[in-house]
Amino acid sequence: MSGFITLMKREFMVYFYSPMAYAIMAVFMFLAGFLFLSSLLVRQDAGIMREFLSSLSILTLIISPMITMRLFAEEKKSGTIEMLMTAPVRDAAIVLAKFTAAVFFYLLIISPTVSYIIILKVYGNPDFGSIISGYIGLICTTMVFFSVGICVSAMTSNQIVCAVVTFIILMALLMMDFLANYTSGTLRHILDYADFKTHMVSFAKGLIDTRDIVFFLSTSAFFLFITIKAVESRRWK
Amino acid sequence: MKYKELENKEAVSRTGWTGWKKFLVVLNVMLAIVIAFALLLEVNYLSSRHYMRRDMTFAQEFELADITKNVLKQIPETEKVQLHLLRKLDEAYTENGRQYTNAPVNVALLRLNDIIDELKQYSGSVEFFLYDLNTANAKVVLEELKETIGIVPESCRANDLIIIYKGRKKTVSVNEMFTAENPTDYASQPKLKSFFAESVITSAIRELIEDRKTVIYFMTGHKELDKDSNEDGIGIFASLLLKENCELKKIEKFSTYSEIPPDCDVLVIPSAGKKFQEFEIQTISGYVNNGGRILILLRAMTDTGIEKIAEDLGLKVGNDLVMEGDKSYTQISMGTSGLAMPLPEGQFYVDRFGNHIITEKLAGTALLCQLARSVTPSEKLPDGVEAVPLLMTTEKGWGETDYRHADKARFNSGKDLQGPVTFAVAVTRKAAADNIHNQARLVIVGSHFSIEDAVMNFMPEFTLNSVRWLAEKENEISIPRKNPENRMILFSENDATFLKWLLLLIMPAFIALFGFSLWLIRRR
Residue A31: which of A65, A62, A1, A70 has the closest Cα? Predict the structure, then answer.
């Protein structure tokens, strides 16, 4: 456990060694601000957080390959992966530490958007229940996006390839309903259920459903499991 | 090739693993991944069978009404209800010389999508099919509709929702599911004033799945409130009953009837203003004795003889006017301003409900009442009769006997009835053994206000629950829904400019500058 915490701290701090983290945060804030403002000025309704959080999920889809691409790929390229692999920590701890640090970093990036709720409170009467549910959904979605990203990162040493493949996989996961339209019967039900959008939209609407939570957490756990196996594979290659 | 061999040799010497052992390891990992995937499917399958869903919105916007849930529960697992929507989004439209980008029907279609999602989530028997008429090949889409469900394209309109159950079809239009509010200024877009897709769809499904409608007779001929008259203001009550798959009929020329029609499930006597004849009272009494179901709404300050029905059941109908002495029940608060306006004389809110299935789900709500007379169960009721008070005032209320000077009304001890005053009662009476119903059911309300549009618009549950109980449809008794709060945002042009600067420049720039300076400090 202590190995996990040490590694997680180290991974988290790595983001701030270069000004890149702040640059990402600043760009993210600008884009998030633009999305929020455009919804606010058009609809003039405190219920706009639903649209905003949905848009933020799409923004996360774009930003997550950028954050996760370096997690293993960079270590492999720079050769530091050998040091990491010989450290007295389990592979699962390494993977989970990198994953948790990335999720925390993302939470830090989105944390200024909480100020938007204050703005809504000042000028109107927002529905806090749906906002809380929307943020829970955003965190769940982020966990899946990042677990896919880290999984791809563990399998390649090229960061660009990693980002592109992650993006393609995430897009495919988001387009399950499109595929479902061309199928029928049980397969259609499975694809409908596996459609990310349906689960994401529920949260944004203000609905907390155990099926959505289980779907996101289990999918995330599955990709992390593959990542651990991919990392382990270095030992027997 | 040579390089590969060398690499293999190097790997073998490094790990001590031969090719066979490596194959087994890879196989082991593959198997582990397959098992993990199977576990993933299993966990999701189980969670889809046993789940909890919580609506976090303030107004419980996505929580289906109890009645909808009950209707969906009636659908056997082997049957399906299909919803086919011919969606056509309105592109930009012009009204009063101004172009709007988002027509109300588009907003309604979006919200309809939410409702259909919830119906699907709640019941596996609901299937949804969307036909997009905005595409260039809309004609092909309609032809497809003809093939799949046998609907002739010519009979379809844009934004029709066709509901099919066991081959039976019912078409409702999305345009019937909302009312729109035109913008008051040039800066805003039109908004939905009300949206009732859920009740429209539920009503349509109900019509398809129920074999028989509940028949409700309205008494006429004694200056009762008329469900078909625009002046009497009970049109909403009638329309809500129709939505509950009821068939509404009138008993006209009651004097020619020797008995209440045998198909009558519930008889409504809506505030008679003229005396009943003796034989009419006897006919109604006979109906009660035979297990009849009646909703009687009395008129204050007017005796029509119908009071005798209540008195035979051990109730005392007061010749008074119910007043509320607690000021917090006789005024209305003006939004968030903290100001309160007094209600007109004789009007008051009721939030004290009796312990009865009709009112048990109304806890925490308030019903507006006016011009009520007291209806009090006697201490000793006749054999086989049970009476439960439904609506009552606070302890500070009273039954004003000097109601002709209601403006100077105050409690006179010994003369007026002391609070809490009951003015609505649910009564059951054992019926003779050879009747369809083993008990008669009556709801007697000392005021007609509860069925008027002014109340039905905001709080229809009390009256509807009464009719549901009378018709033995207790499973449809529902909880009042919260009205979605107005979440309009008001800001001036200056505020908008400030927000633009704050969100697009100040906040991102602050983060960038902070990060850059921190990075510079670290470099030194």
Answer: A62
Domain total of chain B: 4
CB contact under 8 A, B15 and A19: no
- Do B434 and B452 lie in one domain? The reply is yes
Which of B4, B37, B47 is most worth mutating to test chain A (most A CB atoms within 10 A of its CB)?
B47
Q: Which residue of B has its CA nearest to A48?
A: B487
Q: Could you write out the three-class secondary structure of B370-428?
A: ECCCCEEECCCCCCCEEEEEEEECCCCCEEECCHHHHHHCCCCCCCCEECCCEEEEEEE
Among chain A residues, CA nearest to B100:
A42
Predicted-complex ipTM score: 0.86
B242 and B388 within one domain: yes
Q: What is the mean pLDDT of each run of 10 residues along chain A (237 residues)?
A: 83 81 88 88 73 86 88 80 78 91 92 89 83 92 94 88 92 83 76 83 87 94 93 74
Cβ–Cβ under 8 Å, residues B315 and B307 = no
Find the closest chain B residue to A236 by CA distance: B15
Q: Are residues B108 and B78 in the same domain?
A: yes
B291, two tokens: 């297990």
Note whether residue B481 is domain-resident: no
| Domain co-membership, B380 together with B424 | yes
Question: Helices B235-243 and B461-470 sit at what angle, rounded to 10 degrees?
Answer: 50
CB contact under 8 A, A30 and B36: no
Residues B31 and B132 in one domain: no
pLDDT per residue as tens digits for the range B339-379? 677 777 778 888 889 888 888 888 878 888 888 899 999 88
Any domain includes B338: yes
Residues contacting residue B207 through CB under 8 Å, at least 6 positions apart: B170, B245
Last residue of a domain, one of B208, B239, B270: B208
Which residues of chain A are within 8 Å of residue B36 when distances are taken between CB atoms?
222, 225-226
Domain of residue A137, residue span: 2-236
* Phi, psi (deg, nearest 5) at residue B128: -125, 135
Q: Quick check: is B156 in a domain?
A: yes
Is there a single domain that holds both residue B249 and residue B363? yes
Please write the tens of the pLDDT for every residue from B116-157: 988 988 888 898 888 887 776 777 777 777 777 777 766 778
Domain that includes residue B504, residue range: 492-524
Distance spanning both ends of chain A, measured CA to CA:
27
Q: What is the CA radius of gyration of chain A?
A: 19
Q: What's the pLDDT at A137?
A: 92
Runs of H (alpha helix) within B77-196 = 104-122, 138-149
Residue B61 lies in a domain: no
C-alpha neighbours within 13 Å on the C-beta side of residue B478: 21
